[in-house]
Amino acid sequence: MRREHINPDGLFQHPSFTRIVSVSGAMRLIFISGQTPTDENYKVVAEGDYAGQYRQVMDNLGVQLRAAGATWDDVVYRRIFTLDVDALIAALRAPEARGYWNAETPPGSTLVGVTRLSDPAFLVEIDLQAIVAAD
């Protein structure tokens, strides 16, 4: 399996994501549904706290990646939904929010501001796409 991270000339090279991630060869695709900031009983965690909810979402996504036989390095795309883009960006700048992605080869990404998530207490939801070598 071959993976290429491409940031074309003429476009700003953003430090938080790669513009294009191209993968070819024998692979297994993994699609992880939107993860919300919940515990194992589907109770909201860190109500009102963007940083706390982001960490819970990422911890939950880590569990799902491991269950699928993948790691954070296998993630090629993420989609982030949030009620307040500015509040989430501020939370993502905190040192404890870093460390999930390889700074040299982050996944492709889209950040979307929404008016509501599936529970009014949810501030952030993230889904992922990962690719691993075929079994």
Structure description:
- The protein has 135 residues and is α+β, with helices and mostly antiparallel strands.
- The chain has two helices and six strands; from the N terminus they run E-E-E-H-E-H-E-E.
- It has one domain: RutC-like (60s Ribosomal Protein L30, Chain: A), CATH 3.30.1330.40.
- Strands 3-6-4-5 form a four-stranded mixed beta sheet.
- The protein is globular.
- One of its GO terms (molecular function) is deaminase activity.
- This is Endoribonuclease L-PSP.
Mean pLDDT over the full residue set:
93
Shape: globular
Please report the total strand number as a whole number: 6
Largest sheet: 4 strands, mixed
The helix fraction, in percent, is: 10-25%
Tell me the structural class. alpha+beta
Question: In CATH, what is the class?
Answer: Alpha Beta
Family: Belongs to the RutC family.
Protein name: Endoribonuclease L-PSP
GO molecular function: deaminase activity
GO cellular component, one term: cytosol
Structure summarized in a few sentences:
By secondary structure, the protein is an alpha+beta fold. It has a single domain (15-133), classed as 60s Ribosomal Protein L30, Chain: A (2-Layer Sandwich). The chain has helices spanning 50-67, 85-92; strands spanning 2-6, 20-24, 27-35, 75-82, 108-113, 124-133.
Descriptive key words:
135 residues; alpha+beta; 60s Ribosomal Protein L30, Chain: A; 4-stranded mixed beta sheet; two-stranded antiparallel ribbon; globular
